[in-house]
Amino acid sequence: MIAILDYDAGNIKSVEKAFKILGEDSVLTRDFSVIEKADRVVLPGVGSFADAMNHLKKYELDKAIKDFVKSGKPFLGICLGLQLLFNSSEESKGVDGLGILEGEILRIPSEEGLKIPHIGWNSLEYPNTGRLFDGIDEGSFVYFVHSYYLKARDEAIVKATTEYGVNIHASIEKDNIFACQFHPEKSSTVGLKILKNFANI
């Protein structure tokens, strides 16, 4: 069973719908006992870094996430869910993230011809082999909606990148932790394949 964390963030229902399309057993929850028993956990999210951290702490899901990650079972962060795994974000200075991984969340630099937030389809390059992308060709397109991006400290964990005025670390994998800056649940057949790969890990 896949537990999708419900902490009042946007875009959670579309993740649940995608797993249902795939025939995967999933549930929206903030119940500690359900999370603990889950085979996999997904942290989706759209919104501000500070608001998201406040809601995670309000429901004590920050502790539940750290405990689940320590269990060694697969964990997936999506969009804001990727950013929250790191220490902090330029969006919300002074607000601590979960600090599970090392890296910076930076604002996409302004550049003529580039709109921010970055909304749309971009192709992926694979600097390192990642299990989420098994059977998915390099150069495949996925859907992004974001104004901030990850620069991971350890580039060995970066499994996919994209270019949007700057090199964006679009997906990471470290041990049992997976995360995507893009939205697999909105990325058509490629995105569904990514979610299926996660469900099969």
Model regions low in confidence, pLDDT < 50 over at least 5 residues: none
- The total tally of domains equals 1
Proper CATH architecture: 3-Layer(aba) Sandwich
CATH class: Alpha Beta
CATH homologous group name? Class I glutamine amidotransferase (GATase) domain
Count of β-strands: 11
- Beta content: 25-35%
**H and E string:** EHEHEHHEHEEEEEEEH
What is the CATH fold-level name?
Rossmann fold
Largest sheet: 7 strands, mixed
Instruction: Report helical residue fraction.
Output: 25-40%
Average pLDDT taken over every residue? 96
Structural class: alpha/beta
Radius of gyration: 15 Å
Helical segment tally? 6
- Strands across the major sheet, in which order? 2-1-3-4-11-10-9
Distance between the termini: 13 Å
Basic shape: globular
Question: Could you provide a short overview of the structure?
Answer:
By secondary structure, this protein is α/β, with parallel strands linked by helices.
Overview of this structure, please?
With 201 residues, the protein is an alpha/beta fold. It has a single domain (2-200), classed as Class I glutamine amidotransferase (GATase) domain (Rossmann fold). The protein has helices spanning 12-21, 32-37, 49-58, 61-71, 80-83, 188-200; strands at 2-5, 26-29, 40-43, 75-78, 103-107, 118-123, 141-146, 148-152, 158-163, 167-174, 177-180. It has a 7-stranded mixed beta sheet, with helices on both faces. Strands 5-8 form a two-stranded antiparallel ribbon. Strands 6-7 form a two-stranded antiparallel ribbon. β10 (167-174) and β11 (177-180) form a beta hairpin. It is globular.
